[in-house]
Amino acid sequence: MGRVAEHQDSAFIAAHVAIEAASELLRFKREGFAIGLHPFGDPEPVAQLAEALLRTARVEADLFPGRDGEDQSYREALGQLASACANFLYDQCPGSALLLAGGPMEIPESEVPY
Length: 114
What we know:
By secondary structure, the protein is mostly helical.
């Protein structure tokens, strides 16, 4: 599988996860709390959106044409965003499918605080 095809797959997964999060947010708008004092069902939309954002930032950073200093600054900002999402998922969502996945978009050890 080529680099672009791998990123297309990751973008598709990001879209799917973001849609699931949006569905839960809309359910909350319509129905209120999911169970007791918990506003959202499982999985939490925050974790889903963090995963979607992480995948999207990685695709953008890897495929963004880096021709000048401004582009490099944007790519670095995307890397910081991806790292923040990875840290959140690692710290708050240890059972995240993204962390357990062994695919090409697995979080590299350099982004996960051990």
